[in-house]
Design brief:
heterodimer; A: about 375 residues; mainly alpha; ABC transporter involved in vitamin B12 uptake, BtuC; two-stranded antiparallel sheet; 19 helices; 2 strands; about 0% strand; B: about 500 residues; alpha/beta; Rossmann fold; about 25% strand; Simple sugar transport system ATP-binding protein (chain B); repeat (chain B)
Amino acid sequence: MISGRLKALFLRGPIGLTVVSIILGFTVGGIVLVVAGFNPFEAYGAILKGTFSKPKYIAYVIIYATPLIMTGLSVAFAMRTGLFNIGAEGQFIVGAMVAAMAGYALHLPIWLHVPLCLLLAMMAAALWGGLAGYIKARFGVHEVISTIMLNWTAFYLSNWSLTLSGFGKPGTGKSFTIQETARIDLFSQWKISKEGIQFIRSHEYLGDVLKAPVNLGIVVAIVLALLVWYILNRTTLGYELRAVGFNPHAAEYGGINVKRSIVTSMSIAGGLAGAAGALQVMGVSHKIAKLAVMEGYGFDGIAVALIGNNSGPGSVLAGFLFGGLKYGGSKIQDAVGAPTEVISIVVGTIILFIAMPKLIQTLLKFKKG
Amino acid sequence: MTTITKKFGDFVANDAINLKVHRGEVHALLGENGAGKTTLMNILYGILQPTSGTIRINGRELKVTDPNVAIRHGIGMVHQHFMLVETFTVTENIVLGNEPTRSFGVLDMETAEREVAELSERYGLAVDPKALIQDLSVGSQQRVEILKTLYRGAEILILDEPTAVLTPLEIQELVGIIRNLTEAGKSIIIITHKLGEIKQVADFCTIIRRGLHVDTVDVNTVSEAELAAKMVGREVSFKVEKKKQVPGETILEIQGLCVEGGRGLPAVDGLDLKLRKGEILGIAGVDGNGQSELIEALTGLRKVKSGSIIMRGKNITNLSPGKIIEEHKIAHIPEDRQKRGLVFEFDIAENLILQSYGKPPFSKRFSLLWDNIYQNAERLIEKFDIRPQHPATPARALSGGNQQKMIIAREVSHEPELLIAAQPTRGLDVGAIEYVHRALVAERDRGKAVLLISFELDEVLNVSDRIAVIYEGKIVGILDAEGVDENEVGLLMAGGTA
């Protein structure tokens, strides 16, 4: 019974589609490598080795995946309400900026400082996302247009904020580092203490993990993913948002306030992307720097959401896949000399195939029959 | 077409169906929703490939691998939902894909327009070749579709439910067009489940039931009742059974209602109407006289410009749809069931709580109680005979009739004081129509008020206790249904005075 249902989910549902798309994505990437004169097995082997061969690498994959999971959640949540949140990038920037400000300016005990920092960042980013929702509900401006513009607004707002005295560290193009009490790094003080160094040297595995800037971000990301799943599938709010996403006319007929749903959904999406920005500052960078280009966490979130079938758990898995590819992919340049951009080709191809469910279904049937 | 069989997996959509159409004949294809009519025609037009069976045209066997092959062999199809480019002119749409060109591929619009004008004159299909599609009425758009097939040299025309979207007057014009075409030697296959139309235009009729070929009959030798029985597989009563009932007090009062239509013009223009408990008030009228706007105003989906709507003594003008459903106990079977009435991606259980998801027993504070939601679905599926009987079936997988049953189940389960039924039987087959009518009468018998809006005059006459005729946004006459003169209603509908 259960295996039958799993099989059905695989053959007709989203899982089979995703798995086949991922396989095809790697195949196409492999072909590109062959054409470019590299051995794809060596290249992919280097990625695997660079991802799994040392505990430290795995820790890095998790660190890479954390923000992607959350921007993925942001895009996925909006998508469920029929909204395309291209603005996760800007919401990420706003979240990072506010977290850096609150992390530096406030002086509080750690148990208060950390949650407050995260909360303020999420609220600011929720307003940022909600603004796009409001513009859509009130004036009918499509969210793709408004969020793209808000991305650039956030970009320059963040760079401008670094010129403020008391936030930007003069002459560095960076902000002041946040207080210790606003950080979510694990064992950061202890690691550089005498005992810590001793521990890292003497414990092969744990010590290796600790060489990476491990932090609590992943825990928050997974909690948020579960929360997204719960809201969408188990609450009246989720029912409303999904109804609006699938058929706004029917939702309106059923008495659901469609305009309010659009604002709510974009606000929640904004908050999720803002959490990604905040955790990145609180756990990894500890400050923000002047941006020369968009960092791309929000845009990668679109890919993560698509691969994760716009669901909470899916975004977590896709975030890990993407984080692994990003981190492991950076190593093939050194290992076999192949360009890192091959990873972009793989990801792009996966999404291309996911967007062609008919083709995959035909392939699955062909394999079966 | 001989012994055509089409299987989708284990499901047999067409089971060894035979269909023979002669030159110059109108052949009707009759069957309930989901009987396999459209599948058969899609096979003829090359959209689907048959699992087995053969197609012969003028005696020659033919493999119709795609629609281009069908078009080359003189088969043309007019789909139920038109396939026209709204911002193009009539001529541009007709020549699309076969554009006449001068040298260097320059479009020759003059020639095209001349040809189109010539065609439209020859078959009596009056349209302005230079008009834009978006400015045309539905009837004219259909004529453009027919012209398109003729322009491509069609000898056999398939019309898929051609009257579903037309007004009575437009239907009469279409009948004239069909006659002109057959006189010119064209053959017509008309897919329909309206018996009256078959009697009116068709020469022969092939009846399909659940994918099986039931019979092919000469239309002149059978009655409508016989056709209906063959289609449904049992006797069908056209008469709506209902007891006499004395209506109670006034429940809904509409005074001087003005509502703007889509283009900012007044669609409802100073409308007055009273509705009492325990009666079915039918609104008769030709499509486009303000019916849609009236319903949307009553249900809060469209803003009222002036006037008032009083429900049980309380003013409900311009309240939100949620308030009107919740506090004022108005339920609504929407005119466009797929756009308004249901969410395709939701399953039956989810669709059944579209208005009540936020209330007990379906939710507690913010959490949905799925066990109760599914129990509710099982109960309503049983009571209203919705098929398939599984609550987790997505709405998109239901037939039109079952989608409508689901909507009725939901609306009636709210225990409304007023039920607004807009076009409740549109696109349904005879069996489902009977069901819907019974449900409406049952609500009335329970002392509730029912407002029925329909473009089918027969339906209004059969089901209602009183009939209000709407014309250009006003009620121009209210008649007792008992012993009403159909011609009188018809005259009022057309703007005449009784």
